[in-house]
Amino acid sequence: MNDENESRRKKRMISLIICTFSYILAIGIAVIVGYFLYDYLHPLLLILVTDIIATLVVYFISIIIQNTSLYDPYWSVIPIIIAIYWFIVGALESGFEATHFIILIIVGMWGLRLTYNWVRGWQGIKHEDWRYTQFREEKPKLFWFINITGLQLMPTIIVYLGCISLLPAFTTPIASNNIFYIIGIILTIVAIFFETLADEQLHAFNKKKQPGELLKTGLWNLSRHPNYFGEISFWWGLYFFALAADTSYWWAFAGPVAMIILFTFVSIPMIEKRLKKHYPDYSKYQKEVSMIIPWFKKK
Predict the structure, then answer these.
(1) Which of 24, 42, 68, 210 is the most buried (most CB within 10 A)?
(2) Is 223 helix (H, G, I), strand (E, B) or coil?
């Protein structure tokens, strides 16, 4: 048994090394392309182009290893890179701003925690998210198209839309007493705490749950997907940072709205369809507990 656990641990470590190398390569290529395009593209378009290039690099590597889950940490890793880039740009243009640094720390906290949550749940190269496996089995001939568009490029575009708020947030001075800035601080920190608590409760439950048992305690007694509520709230918090810096970026709400659409009409319906198959009383749980927004349990 010890030899088996050691072998599993080594395989998982090798998988994480491959994943790390893939992201270093993807980000490196994107940075090189961005360097040559810097003088020709608007900052937002520059990030979009390099973002897509990095995604394509990850995509091609995921094809080589035949595991789409290689893309999963992209959601939490790339926003940190974008935040660091625009923070540096802002510091070089207008000097160091404490308010900008606080936003950078918040984005870093969110991204590192979410990445860690993925790492501890990923079993290695041979382990692929059930949703990807389902697409492979149901649409084998179309999977390449579903993979590059719906499973990788679409999330990249949605995260990019959410990160638009970071451009004004890092490149325009923000007063520490700005009401939008204060709201952004409160909302993002509460969102990180909420999402962390939801993930920890789920992680602890999965370690000791019995077959057919549903998590209905803690935050999961107030929302069927409290982790998604925290995630959506975080992106709305970034939007308030954008408003604090420059209200002309009001249209950046497209980012958090896209997050709501993704979770409400794509991710959650797919997850709950699967849960209803495996848990007989899930339909009752759906009727009693709010889908996303935490609320009192219906009687």
Answers:
(1) 68
(2) coil
